[in-house]
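A brief tutorial aside. Many learners find it easier to grasp structure tokens once they have seen a single protein encoded end to end. The record that follows does exactly this for Glycosyltransferase family 92 protein. Read the sequence first, then the structure, and try to relate runs of similar tokens to stretches of the chain.
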Amino acid sequence: MRALLCRRPKKITVLVFLVLFLVWLFITIIEFSFGLTVTTDDLISPMKIVKARELKAFITSAYYYPTSKSLGNNALALVLSINLVKPPTSQLFSPDPTELVIMAKNETSSVQVSTPFLRYISFMSKVKNQKNDRVTPHEVCQIITVFATAQLLPNVKSIHMVGNNGMSEIPFTIPSYSKRDVVVCTSPLFVSEQWQNFLFAVHVYRRFGAHMNLYLISAVTSFYELMKEYEREGYLKIQPWVKVDFPGVSRTIADPHNQIEFRNQAASQTDCLLQFKESARFITFLDLDDVLIPKLAPTYAEEFQKLMEGKNKLAYIFYHKENYDAITTRNSSKFSLKKMFSSLECKHKRETGKIVVDPRNLNYTWIHFPPILPNGLEKYEVTENVITHLKTIIWSDKQDPSSRILIEPPYFDNSSAKIISSRGIMDIEDDLRKMIRKPRIRKIFPDLPSTHYYTDLVVKCYNDRYYRYHYSGRIGEIKCPGPQLCGFHQHPKIKCTHVDATHKPMKTLHPITYYYATNPRFTGDIGCYSH
Ligand SMILES: *[C@@H]1O[C@H](CO)[C@@H](O)[C@H](O)[C@H]1NC(C)=O
Ligand SMILES: *[C@@H]1O[C@H](CO)[C@@H](O)[C@H](O)[C@H]1NC(C)=O
Ligand SMILES: *[C@@H]1O[C@H](CO)[C@@H](O)[C@H](O)[C@H]1NC(C)=O
Ligand SMILES: *[C@@H]1O[C@H](CO)[C@@H](O)[C@H](O)[C@H]1NC(C)=O
């Protein structure tokens, strides 16, 4: 070994001199023949490219709209998560791409378009003619959600993202065009055990005329099976929410475990907005425990219409959340929505609310509301109604099974107003009974969890690692609440169904390499994890 090591440098030195000589000869020849002078700049810039930080973009959504009232015809809308924010320790030069380049083909022709890429839009700035927009309005996380749109060709067959050294074909889907009044986009559930909360929400949405589009990462298996049955019966659509991943890329370059806000929730909400952009009259973005119940009209659509009409063009309306405690039974054989409604107790504590939009007037949104108000549009803060936020759901074994009492839960304002009528509650209870009688659901019911385990771990972890800083004003100490902020000790008896997908390594493109997942599916083989 030693001997070899000693002899090698001599050979290498000779080789290096030879290469340098050849380069010198080559440059001299070029100078001679074309009269060019090679400046130091020309020699340095290739070095810069070598040292630049690599940009990695994960495509969470790619929708192609043959027609669109707001994006134009033959439009592509993309949602990407890109490592745009430089880690504080990085010495590397940050490339600053100003556009995305897209190539599309149909059967007869092809087109290449570039769409401007605005990197540093601050939270409040209004940039004219912006097409590629940042969805995440802060830089606590290094991987940022970005929206992009461009018009392509009629009848597109293939779409490629183009780099300086090649391109990658990307999959796309045509969004739904079937008409719906209201879509509720439920933020991604993870390690969820909250089957009572689910039944409460899904029956309320059904009663007042909304379609539920629920994003799912993981849930306790029996609860997952219950949701699948409700999906079969047409109550909701379960949408797998796959993780962002860059196979083969070092975490020092792009870290999807720790550097994406929550579980890429802003991207899931924008995905839902884009998916129903041409089909829904109204879309709302709610967590499972945020239950909106119309108060001004018998249905959601009529309430939203009432709130929006007669006003200037609105990007969104914003409902506040009022916290409630609910008591429910841990024993599924005794479950009743009537009892859950009757137990609601207002805590007189308000939290940051959620929005309802006319999808023609918004292209993307962040977790609570969009980071900027599109030009010329306004927002309306709803004072006429609030979201019932099931802040604490107590799983009790004391609930009296024989109690026939029905209490109309109070509206938060201490007036005599109620959040729902007894008639509404009875309709919802009847609908629940009808579902529980179905043999497939009756079979699942006894297996639903009677204790919560992961719920407690999630609450504790988020309080310790995130909200503690958030609510005490120690904002400077906040670290990115990444998808893997909380690791969970697996419980030997509690099994989860978890999303999975196929992620492929990609050939590096400059300045941005594009990634995507295919074949999303649910599996019992992963365990109970937050993404
Ligand atoms: C392909 O795009 C071209 C250019 O817009 C258009 O004229 C042509 O009709 C398209 N072909 C098909 C098959 O739609
Ligand atoms: C649930 O309630 C039923 C009916 O009262 C009872 O037979 C069953 O043992 C209870 N299950 C649990 C887990 O407590
Ligand atoms: C959405 O994008 C389209 C296409 O770029 C643009 O014309 C429209 O103004 C955007 N809408 C909003 C509300 O920003
Ligand atoms: C209603 O009453 C509770 C206490 O009884 C109080 O904390 C709360 O501020 C009141 N809310 C309103 C809107 O008056």
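Self-check: Residues 2-40 form one domain. If you spotted this yourself, you are ready for the next section.
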